[in-house]
Design goal:
single chain, about 450 residues, alpha/beta, six-stranded parallel sheet, 12 strands, globular
Length: about 450
């Protein structure tokens, strides 16, 4: 077990609106982490994004009153020197390329509801992020081989599986999808999330809640949850949880985190996400978003009434919107619900800590799931690292759906390492959202042409 006498935490992709402010706040609010000599290094290949996040970080450190070394660099090797923990949240032109992941598979008739982690869009998302993620891990092997890689980058399961199989780095995947599921259950039960003891596991963005109990009494609340779900108004948050409720009724367990995500892994989900028609909507006669890089507004779902705006409304300037993410609010620094910093605390200070949902390779902890597939589930942590907990098998139908994705994981990773479009085609034809061979081939060729500046070279 390593004895930590100092801590250096590196944030790669420090321009991430989702994770940089949250991670930095969690670092500054941790008495444990600040009890050791501390260095925080921000790293991003986007100079402008780095400048914005660094200015925010300096203000946050001053606000917190903590004493630490803060630096920023566009040089990965410089950032990794002496690192103990590397938090990665990377993406290049996220919405520009992501909009292609959403639209182009649908153009070929494929039932792609979202395009982030699953389906053909998720495969191209993987191929774009796999090279940079493996580059980070390989540089860690050379510069800080004992450091931990804490990955927030999607597609979570495919990337973490590749890092753990293709490098010697300690790595873990972190996602807040489980907490989204907990919040949904709490709303149906009309309880506070902290009153519930919930267990869930499976595949990232396709997890299943297997136990719902009262934290104080231990009472099994699943029967009450099923009863209340049946009584709940059918349109309540329908675009987010309508599919989840149908799957609960079908398979007996409630999936998480919501339609946008779980729907990527099944063929019949599109009718449960009404907002697919306006996700990055554009008029193809008047607009060419992939040529102009003027990406339309992203719509997550209909629950927040995204069309209820005035005709005179104008979307915010991208840079203005970006900078608004890097501000200290009226409530000051707040702890997030992310698991990254709790992981660091547990490993660095040998805390025996339970974390309900982390991504690691399956070494038998979930029976029936393919060995060495990256799965998501409860873990115990201490100074020795992360220890996935053994859990009961999922229902056979659920296990089969997850294993299908596990085979796709392996094929996509092989497609990347072998530079093989044929292996990618095998993965695509195995995916339940694909329905036509010729169109699958055409989709692959079009995506490689449109994204040739960022995708790895691959041939038939």
């Amino acid at each position: 077990m390593k004895k930590y006498e100092k801590l250096k935490i590196v944030m790669v992709g420090a321009g991430s609106c989702s994770f940089c402010p949250a991670t930095l706040s969690d670092i500054l609010l941790s008495d444990l982490i600040n009890s050791l000599p501390l260095e925080v290094c921000l790293m991003d290949i986007d100079q402008h994004a780095l400048e914005v996040s660094y200015e925010y970080a300096k203000k946050a450190v001053a606000y917190s009153g903590r004493t630490l070394k803060l630096c920023a660099t566009t040089d990965l090797d410089e950032a990794l020197c002496g690192a103990d923990f590397v938090v990665s949240a990377i993406e290049v032109d996220r919405y520009h390329y992501w909009s292609m992941d959403f639209h182009i598979p649908r153009r070929y008739g494929f039932r792609q509801v979202y395009g982030e982690n699953g389906g053909p869009g998720g495969m191209f998302h993987t191929l774009r992020n796999l090279g940079p993620t493996l580059h980070i891990a390989h540089r860690m092997e050379e510069i800080c081989p004992e450091a931990w890689l804490i990955n927030y980058t999607n597609p979570e399961a495919k990337l973490v599986e590749a890092v753990l199989k293709l490098t010697k780095i300690h790595a873990v995947g972190v996602c807040h999808g489980f907490e989204m599921g907990v919040d949904q259950v709490a709303k149906v039960l009309e309880r506070k999330p902290e009153e519930l003891e919930i267990v869930g596991y499976g595949l990232n963005h396709f997890g299943w809640l297997t136990s719902i109990r009262d934290k104080e009494t231990g009472e099994d609340l699943y029967p009450l949850f099923r009863e209340k779900e049946q009584q709940s108004h059918w349109l309540a948050n329908w675009d987010e949880v309508g599919l989840s409720r149908i799957m609960l009724r079908t398979y007996g367990l409630y999936p998480y985190p919501g339609t946008n995500h779980i729907g990527e892994y099944i063929a019949w989900s599109d009718e449960f996400l009404a907002s697919t028609k306006i996700q990055y909507f554009f008029d193809p006669v008047k607009e060419k978003p992939w040529e102009t890089k003027k990406t339309p507004r992203f719509v997550y779902d209909f629950c927040s009434n995204p069309t209820g705006i005035a005709f005179s409304e104008v979307d915010k300037d991208k840079d203005e919107e970006y900078r608004k993410c890097f501000v200290i609010g009226e409530e000051g620094l707040k702890r997030s619900h992310e698991y990254g910093i709790p992981i660091i605390e547990a490993i660095a200070f040998d805390l025996h800590r339970y974390i309900p949902s982390l991504n690691q390779l399956n070494k038998g902890q979930i029976p029936g799931i393919l060995p060495d597939m990256c799965v998501e589930g409860p873990c115990m942590l201490d100074g020795e690292g992360i220890h996935p907990m053994d859990v009961p098998a999922l229902p056979p139908a659920v296990t089969a759906m997850i294993n299908q994705q596990g085979a796709i994981h392996q094929l996509v990773i092989e497609a990347y390492t072998e530079h093989s479009r044929n292996k990618l085609l095998q993965a695509m034809l195995l995916d339940p959202t694909i329905s036509n061979y010729n169109n699958a081939v055409a989709l692959i060729d079009e995506m490689f042409e449109r994204e040739k500046e960022i995708l790895p070279e691959m041939s038939w």
